[in-house]
């Protein structure tokens, strides 16, 4: 496959990513007015918008781990993508037709209508957020090498930017007097019908172009009829001749999240490799900075810059100023998506030329300085220009961390070494420490000639390891402590899920606490000021992240 064909293939594979972002940008943006018109109070409306991230925090690690262990002939990720796509389609049908469905419940129409709206909004947000995890893992499976992963996730970020631009444009169009609106019954039905059509096309394109290779264990089971029969009997209690194995395996994959939260998954989820832990902590604060800006920027412009009042009566001067500020804020977010799309096109070349660390730090520094200018300035033109520059960080956060996860799993022996436990109260030595010490100091660590890498392996440690071994050259037995620090069975889907959990957790924190802080300080400038503070923490933590193999020596030896 030529480079040009590979790029077009990545565009088609990421078509569903674009469709999901269109749905979440247009649907979730359009939903708050619908909830307010239905009688939901504003304080409860923000809680409704937090249902999706909270459910996502529970489901994302389960889906990620279950897809790692899925043995379906449909692929490891595709069954979950199909299931979550069905949830998105169901929500797109429920939200615009909630009043029609509620009319069947005589005497309880209003309460059922509100319940259906809340259910549809929560289902849409949850399924969209969770569906990104198997899509990211699918990209990683299709692109094994580091350069391919970098290009794949750059295209992933590009399609998210395109989807955001289209979604914001669709939600800004006045659908009241269009022919489609008159034919379908209203502007809500018109918009969500367009979203449904776009999403169906995007799902079909991605599923058609993404061909997963069968899992090796599944191929081995297919070659052994007895093992397959036993698997079918234990998993589904249905004889092989009654049901084809691929159907049973697919059902088991979809049902596996129901019982996948077992002690083993809990053990893997809690025992995080240090490199993943540093990356997730950095992502959490970086996303809190970016999401604090994106979630509340329009309200900041409407109230802080235009001095509008959202609770004012329609038609009053205060309400008109607020509505103008909301439109100007939406323009700023659109420019942010456009900038993010632009940087996504060149992200792979930028990381290869300057390095992932420099790009990550540059993007967060640019974001923090832009947010600081927005916080201090009252010039709407300058504020809009600065808001467009924040798209650089938005593109980076959706690209660089996922390529780092691919790198960590490709070089597990380097980035996630297995610890060796030492008897007689000796200090623990990792394989990585052994590697670097033996390469940097020929007399530091050596093994006897003819030694084999068995469970109990005799090694010699000298004082040149600066505290990583004994002070004398004497042998000891190093035993692999696989029960605690063996990451060989850790799947990439689980680590993608942890990155997505950091993104969702940032939204949950902001939804819970930002409203209280703003209300107590009585200033919407706190929204942007918090972005600056979180951005500073993100920059500091980014210096602890391993961006390449050269950084591992610093981590292990100080």
Please provide a written account of the structure:
- There is one protein chain.
- With 558 residues, the chain is mainly alpha-helical.
- The chain is built from 26 helices and 5 strands.
- The chain has helices spanning 3-13, 15-37, 42-49, 51-68, 78-94, 98-102, 109-142, 146-172, 179-184, 187-209, 216-223, 225-236, 245-259, 263-270, 274-305, 317-354, 356-376, 380-389, 391-397, 400-410, 412-415, 431-440, 482-485, 492-521, 525-542, 552-557; strands spanning 419-421, 429-430, 445-446, 456-461, 474-480.
- The radius of gyration is 26 Å and the shape is globular.
- Residues 215-248, 420-484 and 554-558 have low confidence and may be disordered.
Overall domain count = 4
CATH class wording of the largest domain? Mainly Alpha
Average pLDDT, all residues = 75
Strand order of the largest sheet: 2-1-5-4-3
Q: Can you tell me the overall shape?
A: globular
Known CATH architecture of the largest domain = Up-down Bundle
Can you count the beta strands? 5
Instruction: Specify the biggest β-sheet.
Output: 5 strands, antiparallel
Helical content class: over 70%
| CATH fold annotation of the largest domain | Growth Hormone, Chain: A
> How much is the radius of gyration in Å?
26 Å
Helix run count: 26
The CA-CA distance between the termini, in Å, is 44 Å
| CATH level 4 superfamily of the largest domain | MFS general substrate transporter like domains
How does the helix and strand content classify structurally? mainly alpha
What is the percentage of strand-forming residues?
Answer: under 5%
**Poorly predicted residue ranges:** 215-248, 420-484, 554-558
